[in-house]
């Protein structure tokens, strides 16, 4: 119920108007969001690189409702790509297609994505296409398959709570698509997604096995030396049991460390991130930034009771 409540709040305009006015909400969001600007994001990325971790920078924004907003979002991403090239950070970029107008005008979205892929190719930066709610899953995958024909430097996200995800993984295997596997952070109906957490966990482990088998069959390409190009398989979770399963599956399949990337979110389980680095694993931290932090922040509160306690504790601080 609590998870559903916060996900609902993430989509309610009046709640966004009210909560974003609270200074305490902005302060609490800074645990999960690096800041408002590219400079803030680069500073966070540098600190993580120095701690032995790779980074995926995410310029926040989603569900653009007009072409001007989509074009402005694309320009922000192009500027970020130039900045990453100039600073030589071990980082790639994550984008949401609804930010580029996918639900508004698919031709516009394709045009803007093409510009981003071209600039990313020039700058040597990998692009990860994030997955959004189930209403956009098919269109996102169709756009990814188009993007994969334009560039090898692009990957996508698959969400384990969707029933369709195994079939999607098998289709991605055919084009050696680079996949970030996560559980999923949106509110979906039982007609499209597993309703119980235990079922999501079981499917996540099953999909990890499928994903790693695909990586092994492709010859287990490792994380690039500059940290910008990830291997085929990225296991995105903060759940120690899921991580332990992935480690055991790597050992069973004979996959070396560095052929699978563990990915986690900025501000969550830094201790676990550091442990995996010490063990010799490739770790990438997803670092969001920007002024459109509200929906992302609400989804982080929905995911973990610890995040809600952190937020509530800040309500009473001056």
From TrEMBL:
<feature type="domain" description="Proline dehydrogenase">
    <location>
        <begin position="42"/>
        <end position="310"/>
    </location>
</feature>
<dbReference type="GO" id="GO:0004657">
    <property type="term" value="F:proline dehydrogenase activity"/>
</dbReference>
<keyword id="KW-0274">FAD</keyword>
<feature type="binding site">
    <location>
        <position position="197"/>
    </location>
    <ligand>
        <name>FAD</name>
    </ligand>
</feature>
<feature type="binding site">
    <location>
        <begin position="183"/>
        <end position="185"/>
    </location>
    <ligand>
        <name>FAD</name>
    </ligand>
</feature>
<protein>
    <recommendedName>
        <fullName>proline dehydrogenase</fullName>
        <ecNumber>1.5.5.2</ecNumber>
    </recommendedName>
</protein>
<dbReference type="GO" id="GO:0000166">
    <property type="term" value="F:nucleotide binding"/>
</dbReference>
<feature type="binding site">
    <location>
        <position position="299"/>
    </location>
    <ligand>
        <name>substrate</name>
    </ligand>
</feature>
<feature type="binding site">
    <location>
        <position position="96"/>
    </location>
    <ligand>
        <name>substrate</name>
    </ligand>
</feature>
<keyword id="KW-0547">Nucleotide-binding</keyword>
<keyword id="KW-0560">Oxidoreductase</keyword>
<dbReference type="GO" id="GO:0010133">
    <property type="term" value="P:L-proline catabolic process to L-glutamate"/>
</dbReference>
<dbReference type="InterPro" id="IPR008219">
    <property type="entry name" value="PRODH_bac_arc"/>
</dbReference>
<feature type="binding site">
    <location>
        <position position="131"/>
    </location>
    <ligand>
        <name>FAD</name>
    </ligand>
</feature>
<comment type="pathway">
    <text>Amino-acid degradation; L-proline degradation into L-glutamate; L-glutamate from L-proline: step 1/2.</text>
</comment>
<dbReference type="InterPro" id="IPR015659">
    <property type="entry name" value="Proline_oxidase"/>
</dbReference>
<dbReference type="InterPro" id="IPR002872">
    <property type="entry name" value="Proline_DH_dom"/>
</dbReference>
<feature type="binding site">
    <location>
        <begin position="237"/>
        <end position="238"/>
    </location>
    <ligand>
        <name>FAD</name>
    </ligand>
</feature>
<keyword id="KW-0285">Flavoprotein</keyword>
<keyword id="KW-0642">Proline metabolism</keyword>
<feature type="binding site">
    <location>
        <position position="159"/>
    </location>
    <ligand>
        <name>FAD</name>
    </ligand>
</feature>
<feature type="binding site">
    <location>
        <position position="300"/>
    </location>
    <ligand>
        <name>substrate</name>
    </ligand>
</feature>
<dbReference type="InterPro" id="IPR029041">
    <property type="entry name" value="FAD-linked_oxidoreductase-like"/>
</dbReference>
<dbReference type="Pfam" id="PF01619">
    <property type="entry name" value="Pro_dh"/>
</dbReference>
